[in-house]
Amino acid sequence: MTTGTTGELPAPGVPGLLDGTIPPGTYRLPATESPSHAAKLAAEAGWHAAHLGLRDIDGKAAFLDRCAADLGFPGWFGHNWDALADCLTDLSWWRKDGDPRGYLLLAEDWDAFRAAAPDTAATAAEILDDAVAFWRDRDTPMAVLRT
Prior knowledge:
Layout (H helix, E strand, L loop, with lengths): L4 E4 L5 H6 L6 E3 L6 H10 L2 E7 L6 H12 L9 H10 L11 E7 L1 H7 L1 H19 L5 E5 L1
Parallel strand pairs: 1-2, 2-5, 3-4, 4-5
């Protein structure tokens, strides 16, 4: 079940996403908000935040390698699309310090990634959207913010 990108994060922005005023989804982070500030707000709200740096990513292998490195994937990650989906719908490996109130993935430089590898970005977006949909009705929702 793909949710699709829902556009720019509406007001009240990151605080609204974290308190449930804005439903979990995939949004563009407004230019007035920085990824580091969003991550700080998420941590303060009890959410697990992770940065995924996509600058200079030009294909599937590089994207999957970056996900493994930046997101701290477990050793069983198989470096393929199915394994990415599995990691994003399991997330037990992100619960080392207890159960977070939610998961926030900050996908930085998304537009550059999409320009360099449009097919890979389209598949990645679908998997991220599916992960958001998976977590939507659970106690720990997931949201993706693209910059």
